[in-house]
Amino acid sequence: MSSFLPMGPKIAVLTPEIIVFGGSVLVSIIGLSRSKTLRKSVPLLAACTLLASLVALALGYSYEAADQAGVLMPHFNKIIKTIILVVGIGLVAISVGHIDRRMEDAVARGATTFDPMRVVRGEFYAFMLLSICGAMLIPGSPDLVWLFLALELTSLPTYIMVAMSRGTRRAQEAAVKYFFLGAMSTAIFLYGFALIYGSTGSLQLSTIREVFASQSDRGGIDTLGITGVILCILGFCYKLAAAPMHFYAPDVYEGAANPVTGFLSFIPKIAGFSALAVLLSTVGWSGHAGFTATGTVISGLPAPILATLWMICALTMTLGNIGALLQKSVKRMLAYSSISHTGYMVLAIIAGPGLGFEALLFYLISYGVTNLAIFGALSGLQKRGEDVERFEELSGIGRRYPGLAAWLAIGSGSLMGMPPLLGFWAKLMLFMAGIQAGHTPLVIIAAINSAVSVWYYLRLIGVPTLSPPGTSSEGVLKGPSSWPRFASAVAAVAVILLPLFASRILGNSAEFAPVTPASNMKPANTTTQIAPTAVNPKQAMHNALQETSREENAQLALHCSPTRL
Amino acid sequence: MIQYLLLLLPLISALVIVLSSQRAAKWIALIGSTASLIAAAVFAVQFPHWTTGSFWPDLNTTPILGNFGVDLKIGVDSVSMLLVLLTVFLTPLAIAGSFSAITTRMREYYAWFMILEASMLLAFMSRDMIFFYVGYEFTLIPMFFLISIWGGPMRGPAAIKFFIFTFLGSVFTLASVIFVAVRHFDSTGIWTFAIADLVKFSSTQLSDKEQFWVFVGLMSGFAIKTPFFPTHAWLPLAHDQAPTGGSVILAGVLLKLGTYGVFRFALPMAPIGAVECTTFFAILGIIAILYMSLVCWVQTDIKKLIAYSSVSHMGFVVLGLFALNPLGLQGAVMYMVNHGLSTGALFLCIGMMYERYHTKDMEQLGGLVSKMPVWSFFMIIFTLSSVGLPGLNGFVGEFLCLMGAFVAEHDQPSGYPGVLHPWYAVVAVIGLILGAMYLLIMLGKIVWGTLREPHGDGGNGHTEHAASELPTDLNFREIAILAPIALACLAIGLYPKPLLNAVEPCVKEVLVNYPAVIDAYNAKRGLVNPSVPVKHAEVTK
User: Fold this and answer.
1) Sequence-ordered strand ranges (E) for A245-367
2) Which of A418, A428, A499 sits opposite B141 (nearest CB)?
3) Chain B interface includes A454 (CB < 8 A)
4) Which of A533, B65, B141, B385 lies at a CB distance of 3.0 to 4.6 Å from B70, suitable for a disulfide?
5) Res. A557: pLDDT tops 60
6) What is the mean predicted confidence (pLDDT) over A496-525?
7) Residues A128 and A262 placed together within one structural domain of the fold
8) In this predicted structure, what is the pLDDT of residue A101?
């Protein structure tokens, strides 16, 4: 594939991102308007932008164009973008009424006049859209530079969003911490990119994949490449909030305003997972995944990378859960819980294409929607104009606001994995993927962890509904806007009802359906002409591995690899 | 369609309750649960397989996660049917028993109760592993709220302990189920969670080691739910703190989910694993019987006493299940039903007494027969049923469990060899004596003797009403609650044959792989008696 692609398909593939980018420019201008009505319409405009982008994605996305544009995993790409956009609309809704709350109050009281230099509402939503735009660009990255820029586009706006979300010093502190550590993680994965370039001599992911495949045919990917990939994984861990790069999460989540915390615990995470999937598809699953003689699937990741991911997975789940057990602040607890959920999802990444990716996507949907329910409910509350963030402040609010307590409870139930809520099905698929990929010990660790997590999720269920109202929960009132509560309600209902549509959520799931090993027993195809659109990519690849010479192997694997989802 | 109606009725009533007023809630709940009872009765009358052991209806499926073989399959065999009937029978009674006890947040209480009923029914009726798990696990949520909102003074810790213990065990159950499904997929290329398919696959295709771990994983959930001896720590607290209605359902039905799980999943899915673990679990059962009887002996709180006695009684069920012969399993199933009836009724009786005296302390009560003769009559019946007096229902199950354990030797001419030894039964019989002892002592203290009523208050500020005014005997509602259970106890006790006939084919279905597996196991231990031909040895690997 040439490195200079025709502009046409590229733009066609990027229409949704372009819409989001245009929207962010528009929003940042309108946010400065002197008319209050116009200013107030900023979140609506942002949501409409995302909706338009979603429509463009649904109508205009074609797998052929994506293929031509060098997208490694067209199907994965589309689903990730859809998830980001849908959850993104919810994230816009839960932040309505938060930004510039004080300023607008003062203007309304007549205490001050409107000053375009002091207002940040427009910028906030613009940054939000930019970050979303960055996250959408990641799964379709054709090369490392693109991947790097998209990751930065995702992260940079979030640093500013944290700082501007609240007027407190803690928010500034959180933003500075987040920025410095983020810069460090960027340095780490950038170094990894450099090493990968050094090893393969290319920035094109498809070329890198070919070179890695031929390297491993000659006895294994060289140390330079492996080190590069591992450094990248560690750098991405920061975006995922995975151990050993998870230490920032509690402080930053606590410092930011509630809706921003909701944003941080989802958009960078899905960005990180897409990046991880894209990157690992160059080393892992392309030329190497296959079946052993007995028909069991082996994960094709090279051993050092597998070991790294294995440790990250086990550590992240465990540290996240242990941390969450000890917290007094709801947001710190949710930060640690988000860390542990990252751990579960890394298990899906380890399991690889097929069932693993399906589980990953399902888990991301489940986590995103559940997250909306919880952070929407938290954002819908306020205490003297400030965020509600400690357990005492939630104590007994179910008596006054039964709806909000119910959404919190449903969200916690789903995070805990209580059937029949969405989180349960996500965990079910995750465990299926993990066991099928042969990582039963990790699944057992995950099972123990999800049992431990019950303790702190029960608190989030129990404190609002069961505890008597205390002194610190007296001043807690509903927030000024009803949109966060509405979004929370919608998300909570989705948590209950989505499982009914689980089969259909992932769209054309035939493209994910794992191969039946029994089909390997069929007589192998005698010709090497295997269409790229083989119904059964793994089988095709398997046949190819048996039938073709080593040189053709890598080439074929490119066409028939299971990563071409 | 009646089976879906049966599942939906409680859910619909829960919805109506939420939308109704606080006052109407209890009546709607009563009507809803009675409607479920009627639906279940119709279902039971239509049920064609009472004596064949097959499932019905066996065709309707509603795919939920269709690509992965998760389908909502509903169907029952006679064992499931019995437990469904137990559930729908106890629920209206437990609701009626809560009428006067629950005075706050009534809508929530009855709504949770109906949801609880629906999820128990789902667990008993599901023919799909995942939906069984959904029902099994979801019972935690309503029960958690029932205990933690309407429970006693220690309700918070009790509810949390109950929830965490049970959840911890059941994730391993889920992991085992998924493991079997994945292995099934690996070897056949078909995703399914249908119980029949997985049982067939797992019991014949998995290796010894895999079966062992599958069994251990399944049991870790069911053992906590039942509860088996060392994992029972959540139970006394939860029973003690739960409101009366909650205790009735907890003891009457929820504990049976654990033993039902052993019966329906653990034993048929992993015969090799089960045989390896039989001695271990049988010993746990005996420890539960004896140790818990001794613990009961020293209790002064009646409700705690009954709670501990549940653990002890479940020990008999465990022993019966691990006898691995038709006698023992029949006994275990009978015991599940009978324990549900008699212990549920005992909790109701205690609740009625508690509403009058506001104490459950046996030291403060005595000679109530002179004050409340009707109540005492029922209390005596249910206690005797619990003791296992011949002629009442408790005897049937207890006798069969012990009998099953007694004949569970390696050289049984019945064709069902066992792993145990008569000594197990002999030791367990001591538990019968101890059981009679502590229950009769309880009766002696509170029913007979000189009249003692709590003076001052029961810790609740009800002073000076002791002698004349408050403690009246049971009213009509309370008699109407207890009388049906008493009749059922008597009927089953006098004529258990139809039930035994209904259970027998299901039991044989569960045990289908066992004789061969046990023969192979005994041969490995060098115990095989040459006079018994080893028939199916080639099936086992």
Assistant:
1) 290-291, 297-298
2) A418
3) yes
4) B65
5) no
6) 52
7) yes
8) 74
The reply to whether A329 and A274 lie within a common domain is yes
**Dist. CA A563–CA B504, nearest whole Å:** 53
Q: Which residue is closest to B171 within chain A, CA to CA?
A: A447
* Rounded Cα–Cα distance for residues B85 and B346 (Å): 19
Query: Which tokens is B202 given?
Result: 């797992």
Cα distance between residue B82 and residue B85, in whole Å = 5
CB A339 within 8 A of CB A243: yes
Position B66 scores a pLDDT of 65
Contact A466 B171 (CB under 8 A): no
Flag whether B536 is in a domain: no
Identify the sign of the CA torsion A385, A390, A394, A395: negative
Sign of the CA dihedral with A97 first, then A101, A105, and A108 last: negative
Domain annotation covers residue A196: yes
Contact B167 A451 (CB under 8 A): yes
Number of domains within chain A: 2
Q: Which of A473, A496, A514 is the endpoint of a domain?
A: A514
Residue B466 inside a domain? The answer is: no
Which one of B11, B19, B65 would you mutate to disrupt binding with A, by most A Cβ within 10 Å of its Cβ?
Answer: B65
Question: How many CA within 13 A on the CB side of residue A354?
Answer: 27
Dihedral sign for Cα atoms in the order B461, B467, B472, B473? positive
Q: With beta carbons under 8 A apart, name residues in chain B contacting A317.
A: none
Q: Do A503 and A524 sit in the same domain of this protein?
A: no
Judged on CB neighbours under 10 Å (0-12, 13-18, 19+), A152 is middle
Both A500 and A519 in a single domain? Answer: no
Is the CB of B523 inside 8 Å of chain A's CB atoms?
no
Domain membership of residue A215 (yes or no) is yes
CA angle B414, B396, B402 (to 5 degrees): 55
Q: Which of A295, A432, A450 lies closest to B171 in CB terms?
A: A450
Query: Domain ends where: A492, A514, A536?
Result: A514
Q: What is the ipTM of this complex?
A: 0.90
Q: Which helix (H) or strand (E) holds B62?
A: strand B61-65
Report the distance separating Cα A430 and Cα B537, nearest Å. Answer: 38
Evaluate whether residue B137 is within a structural domain: yes
Q: Is residue A346 situated within a structural domain?
A: yes
d(CA A191, CA B400): 72
* Residue whose structure tokens are 């751990």: A343
In terms of domains, do A453 and A549 share one? no
Q: What angle do CA B58, B64, B69 make, to 5 degrees?
A: 65
Give the range of the structural domain holding residue B57, as residue numbers without chain letter: 2-460+471-524
> Does a structural domain hold residue B65?
yes
pLDDT tens digits, residue range A265-300? Answer: 999 999 999 999 999 888 865 433 443 334 444 446
Task: Check whether residue A400 and residue A504 sit in a common domain.
Answer: yes
Structural domains counted in chain B: 1
Q: What is the DSSP string of A72-126?
A: S-HHHHHHHHHHHHHHHHHHHHHTTTTTTHHHHHHHHHTSS---TTT--HHHHHH
Domain range enclosing A347: 7-514
Residue A217 lies in a domain: yes
Return the closest-CA partner of residue A342 out of A365, A324, A363.
A363
Q: Which two tokens stand for residue A22?
A: 């245009």
Secondary structure of residue A290 in the 3-state scheme: strand
Give B426's DSSP letter. H
pLDDT tens, residue by residue, A133-191: 999 999 989 899 999 999 999 999 999 999 988 878 889 999 999 999 999 999 999 99
CA distance to B383, B466, B474, per residue, from B373 (Å): 15, 17, 9
**Residue A325, Cβ neighbours under 10 Å: how many?**
14
Residues A214 and A232 in one domain: yes
Question: Using CB atoms, which residue from B148, B182, B188 is nearest to A462?
Answer: B148
- Evaluate whether A30 touches A38 at the Cβ level (below 8 Å): yes
Cβ contact B419:B324 at 8 Å: yes
